[in-house]
Specification:
Layout lengths: L1 E4 L1 H10 L2 H13 L5 E2 L7 E7 L3 E13 L4 E9 L8 H12 L2
Length: about 100
Protein backbone atom coordinates (compact mmCIF):
# COMPACT_ATOMS: atom_id res chain seq x y z
CA UNK A 1 0.00 0.00 0.00
CA UNK A 2 1.30 3.44 -0.94
CA UNK A 3 0.30 6.55 1.00
CA UNK A 4 0.12 9.92 -0.74
CA UNK A 5 -0.24 13.01 1.46
CA UNK A 6 -1.49 16.43 0.49
CA UNK A 7 0.43 19.42 1.86
CA UNK A 8 -2.50 20.25 4.12
CA UNK A 9 -2.51 16.75 5.57
CA UNK A 10 1.24 16.77 6.19
CA UNK A 11 1.04 20.13 7.97
CA UNK A 12 -1.90 19.16 10.16
CA UNK A 13 -0.58 15.68 10.85
CA UNK A 14 2.50 17.13 12.52
CA UNK A 15 0.21 19.10 14.85
CA UNK A 16 -1.92 16.16 15.97
CA UNK A 17 0.01 12.90 15.52
CA UNK A 18 3.49 12.01 16.75
CA UNK A 19 5.37 9.68 14.38
CA UNK A 20 4.49 6.51 16.29
CA UNK A 21 0.76 7.31 16.29
CA UNK A 22 0.90 8.19 12.60
CA UNK A 23 2.46 4.78 11.91
CA UNK A 24 -0.39 3.18 13.86
CA UNK A 25 -2.88 5.02 11.67
CA UNK A 26 -1.08 3.89 8.50
CA UNK A 27 -0.98 0.27 9.70
CA UNK A 28 -4.68 0.41 10.51
CA UNK A 29 -5.49 1.73 7.02
CA UNK A 30 -3.29 -0.93 5.39
CA UNK A 31 -5.34 -3.62 7.13
CA UNK A 32 -8.73 -1.90 6.79
CA UNK A 33 -8.63 0.61 3.93
CA UNK A 34 -12.43 0.74 3.78
CA UNK A 35 -12.85 1.44 7.50
CA UNK A 36 -13.85 5.07 7.12
CA UNK A 37 -17.43 6.14 6.46
CA UNK A 38 -18.10 7.20 2.87
CA UNK A 39 -18.80 10.93 2.54
CA UNK A 40 -21.71 11.54 0.18
CA UNK A 41 -21.12 13.71 -2.87
CA UNK A 42 -17.33 13.44 -2.86
CA UNK A 43 -16.58 10.68 -5.33
CA UNK A 44 -15.42 8.21 -2.71
CA UNK A 45 -13.81 10.17 0.13
CA UNK A 46 -13.91 8.50 3.52
CA UNK A 47 -13.92 9.93 7.03
CA UNK A 48 -12.20 7.92 9.75
CA UNK A 49 -12.64 8.72 13.42
CA UNK A 50 -9.27 8.22 15.08
CA UNK A 51 -8.70 8.38 18.83
CA UNK A 52 -5.88 10.31 20.45
CA UNK A 53 -4.18 9.45 23.74
CA UNK A 54 -7.05 8.46 26.05
CA UNK A 55 -9.53 10.85 24.44
CA UNK A 56 -11.42 8.15 22.60
CA UNK A 57 -12.88 8.53 19.12
CA UNK A 58 -15.26 11.30 20.15
CA UNK A 59 -12.42 13.51 21.37
CA UNK A 60 -9.97 12.50 18.67
CA UNK A 61 -9.39 13.52 15.10
CA UNK A 62 -11.12 12.95 11.78
CA UNK A 63 -8.97 11.72 8.91
CA UNK A 64 -10.26 12.38 5.41
CA UNK A 65 -8.81 10.01 2.81
CA UNK A 66 -9.44 8.35 -0.53
CA UNK A 67 -8.66 4.69 -1.19
CA UNK A 68 -7.83 3.99 -4.82
CA UNK A 69 -8.04 0.22 -5.02
CA UNK A 70 -6.82 -0.02 -8.63
CA UNK A 71 -3.48 1.63 -7.73
CA UNK A 72 -3.32 0.21 -4.19
CA UNK A 73 -2.96 3.77 -2.86
CA UNK A 74 -4.47 5.79 -0.06
CA UNK A 75 -4.59 9.55 -0.52
CA UNK A 76 -4.49 11.30 2.85
CA UNK A 77 -6.36 14.52 2.11
CA UNK A 78 -6.78 16.34 5.43
CA UNK A 79 -7.48 15.86 9.10
CA UNK A 80 -9.01 17.92 11.86
CA UNK A 81 -10.07 17.64 15.47
CA UNK A 82 -13.72 17.35 16.37
CA UNK A 83 -13.34 20.61 18.31
CA UNK A 84 -12.05 22.34 15.17
CA UNK A 85 -15.04 21.49 12.96
CA UNK A 86 -17.81 18.94 12.55
CA UNK A 87 -17.22 18.04 8.91
CA UNK A 88 -16.22 19.22 5.47
CA UNK A 89 -18.01 22.19 3.99
CA UNK A 90 -19.72 21.87 0.60
CA UNK A 91 -16.89 23.89 -0.95
CA UNK A 92 -14.23 21.63 0.59
CA UNK A 93 -16.04 18.54 -0.70
CA UNK A 94 -16.25 20.04 -4.18
CA UNK A 95 -12.58 21.12 -4.17
CA UNK A 96 -11.33 17.73 -2.99
CA UNK A 97 -13.53 15.88 -5.49
CA UNK A 98 -12.02 18.02 -8.25
CA UNK A 99 -8.51 17.28 -6.97
CA UNK A 100 -9.24 13.54 -7.09
CA UNK A 101 -10.16 13.77 -10.76
CA UNK A 102 -6.61 14.94 -11.48
CA UNK A 103 -5.11 11.82 -9.91
Amino acid sequence: MVFVETRIFTKKCSLYLPDDEFRELQNFLINKPNAGTLIQGTGGLRKLRWSLDNKGKRGGIRVIYYWQLSKNQIYLMTLYSKNEKTGLSSKEKKDIKQMLKGW
